[in-house]
Every structure is written in C-alpha cells, then in structure tokens.
Amino acid sequence: MNKTRTKDVVDAGAGGGGSGADARKRRAFQRRIDRDDKIEAGDWMPDEYRKSLVRQLSQHAHSEIIGMLPERNWLTRAPSLQRKAILLAKIQDEAGHGLYLYSVTETLGARRDDLIDDLHAGRAKYSSIFNYPALTWADIGAIGWLVDGAAIVNQISLCKTSYGPAARAMTRICKEESFHQRQGYDILWKLTRGSAAQRDMAQDAVNRWWWPALMMLGPRDDDSTHGAQSLRWKIKRHSNDAIRRKFLDQTVPQLQALGLDAPDPDLRYDEKSGHWRHGDIDWDEFRRVIGGAGQCNKQRLKAARRARQSQAWVREAAAAYQAKRAAAA
Ligand code: BYC
Fold first, then answer.
1. Nearest Cα to Cα of residue 124 among 101, 145, 107
2. Rounded distance between C-alpha atoms, residue 272 and residue 277, angstroms
3. Which of 65, 226, 243 to mutate to test the pocket of ligand 1 (most atoms within 8 A of CB)?
4. Contacts of residue 63, Cβ cutoff 8 Å, sequence gap at least 6
5. Backbone dihedral angles phi then psi of residue 276, each to the nearest 5 degrees
6. CB of residue 60 inside a 6 A radius of ligand 1
7. What is the pLDDT at residue 18?
8. Residue 145 to residues 2, 28, 126, 138, 149, Cα–Cα distance (Å)
9. Average pLDDT, integer, range 158-177
10. Average confidence (pLDDT) over 62-66
C-alpha cells in the first residue's frame, strides 16, 4: 500500500516526463533541487511539493506542542528549583519550535487554525513518541536524552532541507535541541551515580523509552510512504533507516558510559560495517500508536483541546489589541 502511494506521488509530482509548460516548470524545479538551490516562499513549486512540506512541517509542529504534555507532568514535581527552572525553559523552547514551524507552513499558504483543527479532530498526526506516559522523574531524563537525541539526529539533516524557510527554522531548533539532549543525559547521569533505587529508576525509564525512540524515526524504508519522493525533492536528506542507524551509533556508547543496558538482547556491534545493529522493532506497536490506540493518545488530544479552549481569551485579547493599533495607525 505504502509503495503504491509513493509511486502515485512520484508520478504526479516529480515530473521528469510529460509535456507543456507545466512539465517544463517541473523539470526546471527539479534541476534547482539537484544543484542544491534553496526554494523560497514566493518561488514556483509543484503543488505536491508544497503539500508534502505542509504535511511534514505541521506534523512536526504538532509534535512540539503535544510533546510539552508529558514533560509538563513533572514541572511541579522536579526534584530541585534548578531542575524545575531548566525543565520550564525546555518546555518553553518546545512551544517556540512549534510556533516557528507553524509560521513556516503559513509561508506555504497553510492556515494555522486549519492545521490545529485537523490535529484536534484526530485527522493530523503527531509523533508517536508522545503517546507514552512519563511515569517517573527518570523519564524526563530519558525523554531529553533519547527523544530529543533521536529528534536532533533527524533534524540536523533537515537543516539542509530544500525549502529555505524550513532549513533556517531547523537550524535554530537544533541549537536548542542539543541543550535539551544534554539536560536529559545529565539527569540520567546523576541518577546512575546515586542510590541503587535511583539507578533502577533510570534503567526502568530507558527500558520503556528505548524502543519508542527507535520507532519515532519512522517506518522502515521499505514501508515509508513519502520517503523516496521526499529524498528526491530533498525535503528529507536521509532515509528513516539511515537516521535510525546514525542515532543508534551515537547512543549506544552514551548508554555504556551511563552503565545502563538496552532492553534489546540482540543489540550488537557489527565489526564489518562499523555500525551497531538493533533487534526486531515491534512495528505492530508503532502502527497501533499512530492509529490512535497508544497509551496516551486520547488524553493528549483532550489536553490539547482543553488548552485551546481555556486560552482563547489570550488570542482574542491579542487580536483586539492588534485591531486597535491598526485602527489608530
Ligand atoms: N509518529 O512516509 P513516512 C521533538 C507517519 S518532536 C507518527 O516514512 P515521512 C520534541 C508519516 O507521517 C520531533 N507518525 O513519513 C518535542 C506517514 O503518515 P501520513 C518530531 C509517523 O514523513 C517536544 C506514515 O507514517 N520531529 O523533538 O517521510 C518535546 C509513513 O511514514 C511517524 C519531526 O517531526 C511517527 N514517529 O518520515 C521533546 C521531524 N513516523 O503523513 C522533543 C520532521 C512516520 O502519510 N519529520 N509517521 O499520514 C520527519 O523527519 C519525517 O516526517 C519522519 C517520517 C522521519 C518523522
């Protein structure tokens, strides 16, 4: 099914063949991509390129916003004032990332309200990873280290995405994400050097977040709907499996330095290729979670809808202020 969809997009959008002005524009567009030109907001682009970008960028924006929820759960219970201040700053960063990304979709003609309607109605996706609960303080460490860690490996490659506004937003996001990854690692580092109970708590968190972090980088390349076309258009710069390999190579030595284990009996170093190899990923679980049946899907969407409703007065006040200023100008 997925392969057919990739093919459909390729046929409809890449446009090597065909005739007439539209086909010529598509070929010229692909030549710009091939020579690493950045595509800017007012430039001509195939409709499918625009749609694919809006899809990916809005899913990313939604992930940043929904991703605040599992961390928010620990704000009032952070173990010290300093940890609380750091976590608060991280969560505010995630909100900012969501806003940059929604703004980028607006340069492509999308309306932020429509995107958020789609999210709240369950029509739009956000990252699978945020449908898992943050049960202990160590989970905040695991989210920073593994989730932001996986995200950053992907997003560093997206700094070279072909759409200029997205590439520039991603560069800024990555700077902040690297701080997030380090704060997560620091939490786990301290716990693994604490009491036996703290070390066990860290191991338990890694056991629960390890596989979802590998899954969040998307389905295997063979099952990726958009992968081939997105690579051709340089919307994505590396495939899902390539990013997953890079993440694993970066993460296993860090796991060893923490003195923790991966919940994967088949994890091994492959001397020949020089890469770490993971065991089988439970793709049924991934499909269940993105299909809406994960542990927290319902509660995440409920919280997002409630927040939009309860904070409507802020948006209304901002709009009224803007209208007043415009009238006075
Ligand atoms: N979860 O064709 P494929 C963060 C969907 S947030 C749910 O390979 P693509 C943070 C996919 O959408 C970091 N759905 O997709 C925030 C497609 O379905 P549709 C988030 C997923 O787009 C707060 C179908 O599966 N980062 O760091 O080529 C606190 C087939 O997949 C997932 C980004 O979003 C998933 N994990 O590749 C802390 C980065 N994976 O749309 C931390 C930008 C796949 O046809 N996004 N699907 O219905 C990307 O790089 C790409 O979209 C992906 C997937 C690599 C994720």
1. 101
2. 11
3. 226
4. 126, 127, 129, 130
5. -75, 145
6. yes
7. 56
8. 31, 42, 20, 11, 5
9. 96
10. 98
